Amino acid sequence: MSAVLHGAPVLEPMRPEDIDAVLAIEQSAYPFPWTRANFADALAAGYLAFCCRSDGTLIGHAVMLLVLDEAHLLNLTLAPEWQGRGCGRQVMDRLLDEARGRGARRLFLEVRPSNAAAQALYGRLGFAQIGRRRGYYPADGGREDALVMALDL
């Protein structure tokens, strides 16, 4: 079934009752997904956690941490059937607006070197690689580095 984007993605606050649906997307998108506890802890800690919807359909989610004037994108996931359709760009635009609106002057994120599509998206948005975290992500047969990227807002 192909997904057709009718309405631009909307960010809504994630609620505890959303976690089951969020987990289903997370598990469909990644071999090493966040856990229920990761999402519950993020909500309990007051992180900015969002459900991404298009015409009422849950298509993904995002979790961002704000500390003083810095934002850190911890998780951005789109359901596989919604990837490659421009949704990532639209969701990132909304996240950047959210961070700016809350006083963030810089946004950081980590991305797997093997995730070329995400790297390309972040590059188009103006993110620059500022570092590398060795062995940051779990991976088949070991660990994978993370590229650390930042964008001045």
Describe this entry's structure for a reader:
This protein has one domain: Aminopeptidase, CATH 3.40.630. The N terminus is likely disordered. It has a seven-stranded mixed beta sheet with strand order 1-2-3-4-5-7-6, sandwiched between helices. The protein is α+β, with helices and mostly antiparallel strands. The radius of gyration is 15 Å and the shape is globular. The protein is built from four helices and seven strands.
Outline:
By secondary structure, the chain is an alpha+beta fold. It contains four helices and seven strands, in the order E-H-H-E-E-E-H-E-H-E-E.
List the helices and strands and how they pair.
Elements: E1 10-13, H1 19-29, H2 36-44, E2 48-54, E3 57-67, E4 70-78, H3 87-101, E5 106-111, H4 116-124, E6 128-139, E7 142-152
Parallel strand pairs: 4-5
Antiparallel strand pairs: 1-2, 2-3, 3-4, 5-7, 6-7
Give the strand order, joined by hyphens, for the main sheet: 1-2-3-4-5-7-6
Beta-strand residue fraction: 35-45%
| Class from secondary-structure proportions | alpha+beta
β-strand number: 7
> Which runs of at least 5 residues are low in confidence (pLDDT < 50)?
1-5
Second-tier CATH architecture: 3-Layer(aba) Sandwich
Instruction: Name the overall outline.
Output: globular
| Rg from alpha-carbon coordinates | 15 Å
Number of domains: 1
How many distinct helices?
4
CATH secondary-structure class:
Alpha Beta
Terminal Cα span: 37 Å
**What is the chain-wise order of helices and strands?**
EHHEEEHEHEE
Query: For this structure, what is the CATH homologous superfamily?
Result: Gcn5-related N-acetyltransferase (GNAT)
For this structure, the CATH topology is: Aminopeptidase
Give the % helix: 25-40%
